[in-house]
Amino acid sequence: NNCKIRISFLAEYLSVMVMMGMKMAAVSSVSLLLLLTSIVTTTDSQDCNYHAAKKQDVTLPLTHVLKESDQLRWLHESIVIFDRRGKAMVTGNPDDVDQNGSLRLRNVDQSKAGTYTPTVYDDGQRIGNLKPMVLCVMDPVSQPQVTSECDKTQVTFTCMQSQTSPEVQFEWSEDGKVNPILKERSFKEVLKDVEQRVYRCRVYNEVSSLTSAPFRQNCTQSDPVSQPQVTSECDKTQVTFTCMQSQTSPEVQFEWSEDEKVNPKLKERSFKGVLKDVEKRVYRCRVYNEVSSLTSAPFRQNCTQSDEEELHLGWSNSNPQCQHQNHPPDHQKQQPLHSTR
Fold first, then answer.
1. What is the pTM of this model?
2. Which of 99, 117, 138 is the last residue of a domain?
3. Digit-coded pLDDT (tens) for 273-298
4. Of 138, 165, 188, which residue is a domain's last?
């Protein structure tokens, strides 16, 4: 392309100057080297007007309003890739541009990156002041995953993903809130300060963005929960349900279900209910932490007894001396009368 030709010419000229041994050769050499560096730097540091992910379609806009008789030409670097004069095609295909003359690029790869320049001619005269456009093509980011590395009192969090290109940037959130200070792939924290914090990392570039699953450090492990059991305690018109289990660590959480439906409001170890409202309800409690989960057997309050239980209890506790008033004891029963002759 033009840049390479200019660099080659300047390098050749510099060589000739040195060989001729001119008095000002040293000064000229320095000047030309500075110029050469400037050209290369300018080319490398061009800002991208447009970005596209690999295998994506992209359209580069034509800002000039075409007349039917205009000639439209698109260049990629210095190569003509589209040339249409009125309705006659010279280079390319009609569907390489849309109805406005904007350039369509399909399924782009790195070979499609670079500078694109549109030109429009009217009767052979170049019209409009159309600027070149620089297209950058890059890989979309890959799915990130957070890991932690432990070191006694510290923990290092790292956002793992397959790309290492400088265009990839990082964003961290703590307990659902973005931390604007954390912008690197890895960072260190004091373990006791972040023991319960949940982290996510987001990786992004100009063409894509992906976020990791939530992650909590694994330097400290919780013990599995123990089997829970529901109990009830009665107080006249109220009943207190408690989910009994052996652990009391703050990591253990509770979930209650009423008649097999989870009640999102009940999240504590114990709760109170009005006895008449919960008399027939069946409860279960689930206890869980990061490493395990267990659910109790179904339970109904035992402050009131069912009719069958009450009847059974009545018969089993009856006093044998208590007889029905219509059934006197045997010794009081009338003896059969003997006939007299």
1. 0.49
2. 138
3. 999 999 999 999 999 987 789 999 99
4. 138
